[in-house]
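Our platform keeps sequence and structure together, in a single record for each protein. Nothing more is needed to write down the fold, since each code stands for a local backbone conformation. An entry from our holdings is shown next, in its original layout:
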Amino acid sequence: MPELTISPDKVAFLIEKAREFDVKEAASDPDSGSNAADDDMLDVLEDSGSDPVVREITGFIRALTEDEQVDLVALMRLGRGDGTLEDWDDLRSEAAGQRDRHTARYLLGEPMLGDLLAEGLAAFGVDWTDERTSADSSSDSERDEDEITKQ
């Protein structure tokens, strides 16, 4: 079985961020000027062109090594169905041969990037949701207590 150069944790982070990006839509009310709370926070789902998620993804990908970036592109293509796990070396070679300095832009241009990366990891038998951290940093027992008090 081939091995990944990029850690599944890094790919999992990108899956989560890519899914945040994928829910964005074109600006529907560019001159609203109203309070976001009054609009039920709908404006956060609009792609304004200066999206902090895009900047975060781009910065993260640029900080990866060249081999990690190649793996990322190959994983996306594997998830897209461009090959199978047996074709991994070919997928990687193609990704390396077409690699330029704009890996982030290339990946962000792919619809459903998060799902494709998740499918790529699944082909390796990796469940990207295993032991993922969440924004809730409380312990398991604290979360259990919170659930009890909500009832």
